[in-house]
Amino acid sequence: MRALDSQFAAHLAGGATTLATCWRIVRRDGTVLGFTDHDRPLEFLDTVFRPETGANGSAMNSSADLGADNAEIEGLLSSVEGEDLRAGRYDGAGIEIYRVNWAQPSQHVLLKAGTIGEVTHSGSQFRAELRGLSHALDQPTGRIYQRLCDVNFASAQCGAGAPFVSASVAMLRDDQNFIAVGLSGYDDGWFAHGLLRWTSGGNAGLTGFVKSQSSGGAISLWLPAGAAIELGDEFEVQTGCDKRFSTCRDKFSNQINFRGFPTMPGNDAAISYPLRSETNDGGRRA
């Protein structure tokens, strides 16, 4: 049961209430934003909750067990939030949902806390999935028994590493293919599967992964960049690793730290029957 301020509790018990819903979002880059379904700005927790987004929240489902509690928020995109939503700046952001007395904003109660999940948009409308704290319990943990390495390149468990190389966009092909300058001298595929980090332009601060790269500087990303790529946009890219044992050994001389199981049998061997061979006397043996 939630503990309420005595004055807020008295307000709720009074019958006629002046209530609104507020959403406080903390992005992974530290930016804090506030939205409300009220018709004027509200301020508490050192945050101004703005109404001009036209945000509306769905009914929230909560349970006493460990099931994931989910809800949604939808509304109109402003020019700033729309670009940031499409660019993925709100992915994984923390969110707090409050019920507040709009006549006295100091009277408020936290209803739910969690993170923003999938964000979809159509025209000027957006819809964001709100994932409760119990959603984290659904994520797989522990090591994976597989042939490929199961840790991130350049992590402490990996032990290998490579510096980032700075480059910039010299020619555009589409939203995930371009020609870069600054990558001359590197073999085809050297940066394939590598982390790419934008340092300027509309995608500054965002990251992606390289699908393929040629010695001529052609870069293909696995997914489109969040915002439009412009000529001259700068980025830095790290040497790529496809997590194969041969790559770990030949490219990084790091086979001693390989975190996969390259000699594990495949599915055919795991489900096959014992082989039978012919004996010299014409009989059979297992």
Radius of gyration: 27 Å
Helical residues, percent = under 10%
- Secondary-structure element sequence? HEEEEEEHEEEEEEEEEHHEE
Number of domains: 2
Report the major sheet. Answer: 9 strands, mixed
Number of helices: 4
Strand content: 25-35%
Oligomer: single chain
CATH architecture tag of the largest domain? Roll
Structural class by sheet pairing and helices? mainly beta
Tell me the CATH topology of the largest domain.
Pnp Oxidase, Chain A
Distance between the termini: 67 Å
Set out the fold topology.
Elements: H1 6-13, E1 19-26, E2 32-36, E3 42-44, E4 47-50, E5 56-57, E6 70-76, H2 79-87, E7 94-101, E8 108-122, E9 125-132, E10 164-174, E11 177-181, E12 195-198, E13 207-213, E14 218-221, E15 234-238, H3 245-250, H4 267-271, E16 277-278, E17 284-285
Parallel strand pairs: 2-4
Antiparallel strand pairs: 1-2, 1-7, 3-4, 5-6, 6-9, 7-8, 8-9, 10-11, 10-15, 11-14, 12-13, 12-15, 13-14, 16-17
Brief summary of the model shown:
The protein is mostly beta strands and 286 residues long. 10% of the residues lie in helices and 35% in strands.
Question: What would your notes on this structure say?
Answer:
- This protein is mostly beta strands.
- The chain has two domains: 17-135, Pnp Oxidase, Chain A; 164-257, Thrombin, subunit H (Beta Barrel).
- Helices cover 10% and strands 35% of the residues.
- The chain contains four helices and 17 strands.
- It has helices at residues 6-13, 79-87, 245-250, 267-271; strands spanning 19-26, 32-36, 42-44, 47-50, 56-57, 70-76, 94-101, 108-122, 125-132, 164-174, 177-181, 195-198, 207-213, 218-221, 234-238, 277-278, 284-285.
- The strands form three sheets. It has a nine-stranded mixed sheet with strand order 3-4-2-1-7-8-9-6-5, covered by helices on one side.
- A hairpin with a 5-residue loop joins strand 16 (277-278) and strand 17 (284-285).
- The mean pLDDT is 84.
